[in-house]
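step: validate -> pass
step: tokenize input -> pass
step: predict -> running
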Amino acid sequence: MSDAISRFLQAQREAGVEFHSLTVVREGEPLVALAAEPWGLEQQSLIYSMSKTFTSAAFGIAWDEGKLSPDDLLVDLFSDLVDDRVGPKARTIRLRDCLAMASGHTTDTITLFQGRWDVGPEGLGDFLRWEPEGEVGVTFCYNQLCTYAVSVAISKAMGKTVHELIRERVLDPMGAGPTYWSTDSAGNSAGYSGMHIAPRDLAKFIGLLTNDGVYQGERLLPQRWIEEYPIRKVATTDDPGAPEWTNGYGWQVWRNREGHRADGACGQYGLMWPEEKLAVVITSSTDSMQETIDQVFDILLPEIDQLQVPDEPVVVPPALGAIAEPGQVWEGTDERGGRLSLTAVENGWELLWDDADGGQHRLGVGHGHWVEGSMTWSHEQYGERIAKVACSAAVQDDDAIEVRIACIQTPHTAMLRLTDQARMTWTTQPLGRDTIAAISLPAGWDE
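step: predict -> pass
step: emit ->
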């Protein structure tokens, strides 16, 4: 058997990638699957822009049922938002242009809003009033509101959100576990991001796309969408530093040197080769996504049918360094005025943290290992919130204490460095967010 997975994991470490999971799927069935602690194959996690491909699939269902067409004009679908400030180019934008990120804009129109999630249906009126600078249907720009427009159009046409539609038609028939998708102020799925799904179920979906839309003999996705969505619709920019983003774009998927892929920020990938009915699905944390794609082509693909999961468990490295004497206490504040105390106990610490977002947390913290727990908040506006986490800590050579908080419902790990004050950084910065509370989920979402 091949040791390619071990070599791939070593290459990930050398590239500074925090590996979370790998699943290889052939003909809709997993060949190999492994995950790194404290993440896991069953732990739902944020996949960022891989959400877009689910939105495209939902459009395929609506298209197949005659509820939407690729040639539908946005000004017709959202006529109540159209006024005389909508220019002539914007009036020609079709759903197919939005699916291909070819609305003609040259700037991601999400910049109209203060936060990446603070978009409501009325925001589509602002989107339409931003007259495209380029040529509609030709000029490529990775534009979040293109996908959001498709999501809202699906909700209006089908009478249910993209998330509800995908659950009903795709994920439930495949036996998927709970999923969560961030919504706008009107309850529509964000579409362009915000989906949380377990790697096991993400691999089922990506495997479905490479298996002609058929799962265990049952067609779940329409044939004509399966044939249409991966075709290159538009040329993308020429960036020698990221060659895998220069091969063109389909309907919410990127073209690869071979095949195509769904991907999401900070290291989420679904690489697909439909001719071989093959998919490689990876979740991770990285700021340099090209390296992982190169490693898949160079290390995994040549030995894809001989892959063997390593015998030893895969673990995201906990904080490294010395352990404190039991009873030793660090007390102080963080940069936002929250109060913390870290007390050394046998084999680790106990962290008490009253943060600036109103949360009061008591967390076990391992030394040389991870200890799972949860952080909770209660907001008048947002209700009860929760973040599942795993924590580790160690004393550094300069006597500072490093506390790592793996936010396992996302790709991200927060790093608290305790000196005269607690200062927090991230292994990879959450998009549009800077606190753990900001990437938390509604309590009870998975019940």
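step: describe -> The first strand starts at residue 18 and ends at 26.
step: cleanup -> pass
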